Amino acid sequence: MIEVRNLVKKYGTHTAVDHLDFKIEPGRIYGFLGPNGAGKSTTMNIMTGYLGATEGEVIIDGHDILKEPEEAKRHIGYLPEQPPLYMDMTVREYLKFAAELKGIPGKKREQEITEVEKMVRIHEVRNRLIKNLSKGYRQRVGLAQAVLGFPEIIILDEPSVGLDPKQIIEIRELIRGLAKRHTVILSSHILAEIREVCDYILIISKGRLVASDTPENLEKKLGEHNAVEIETEASPSEIRTILKPVPGIERIETRSSGGKLTQGRIMEKKGEDVRERVFRAFASAKVPLLTLKASDTTLEDVFMELTQNDKVPDAFTDKKEWEEVGSDAGDL
Fold it and tell me: How far apart are CA 162 and CA 29, in angstroms?
């Protein structure tokens, strides 16, 4: 349905997208992930015809978006991070305007607008000015213009940004509903949203594709090093001293959890289970463990592992970042 081939986008000496290749198959919800500056929005803007590429091709249902933009765009609905709304129009006026731009025939226009309004639940505010709507309703109006014409592919760039928890849940439900009739590509900084909604995930880093698979398979592939979580009153240096003799440990990370408590994450070598050894080590040192539990690889772990050389936005990390214990933590 969509094929991105050897895509490159340069801004002067900066390469935003670096020889990117991937395919989008019909009938799925795709999650598009990457740190800020990784090239997500640039790629989406090229896919939708808003930007030109320096090199490469984007083929949409057999049509090159650069050479046959009108034909290619018929198959795409796009909601950018900042919805292109006209605040002094009513919802209905705006959707009529969008329908005209999309070339929806006059006979079908009214019927399609009403259907889309009901689909995204804005029918009751159709006669209100957009500037008087809440952020959540404005986002729905932007989603409605993307769905108008019922294109096969819906591309959503940060559809839940700035919304409250209730509105985020409602947008998720709308996205799931869209997937019954459309292929959806969703970019988001909320990993829980991607994990819950998407069938397939594409992760890019520095403009390159670094992973593409289902969330479950990504977690399994990078789950060779399972983690054990601990919490104790010992300091990071004391934790290192206690655990240095314990075999089967790949590395240790710690962070303060408030007061005198320290949280630790012990990464096991492949095939190892160090929980009993860790328990006995702390018992021998007469240092109590308040928490000791296994922690499987999560989508956040996958993201951090694959994009660790990029600057990762706060949305992906705890404000108190994990730190390796000691400069020679790899010797543990």
Answer: 22
> Which residues, other chains included, contact 271 with Cβ-Cβ below 8 Å and sequence gap of 6+?
none
Distance between first and last Cα of the chain:
49
Per the CB < 8 A criterion, the answer to whether 272 and 201 are in contact is: no
Give the pair of three-digit tokens for residue 247. 């075999």
Tens digit of each residue's pLDDT, the chain (332 residues):
899 999 999 999 999 999 999 999 988 999 998 888 888 889 999 999 889 999 999 999 999 998 898 899 889 999 988 888 999 999 999 999 999 999 899 889 999 999 999 988 899 999 999 999 998 899 999 999 999 999 999 999 988 877 888 888 888 888 888 888 899 999 987 787 788 889 999 989 889 998 888 888 877 766 555 789 999 999 999 999 999 999 999 889 888 876 789 999 898 887 788 999 999 999 999 999 999 988 766 777 777 777 766 543 333 333 344 565 543 444 44
Give me 73's structure tokens: 């765009």
The owner of tokens 């630790």 is 264
Q: Using CA atoms, how far apart are residues 164 and 162, in angstroms rounded to an integer? A: 7
Alpha-carbon distances of 200 from 12, 177, 208, 317, 332, rounded to whole Å: 33, 17, 17, 22, 36
| Nearest residue to 249 (alpha-carbon basis) of 227, 269, 223 | 269
How far apart, in whole angstroms, are the C-alpha atoms of residue 303 and residue 280? Answer: 33
Buried b (16+ CB within 10 A) or exposed e, 302-330: bbbebbeebebeeebeeeeeeebbbeebe
The DSSP 8-state label assigned to residue 47 in this structure reads H
Nearest of 301, 293, 291, 261 to residue 274 by alpha carbon: 293
SS3 284: helix
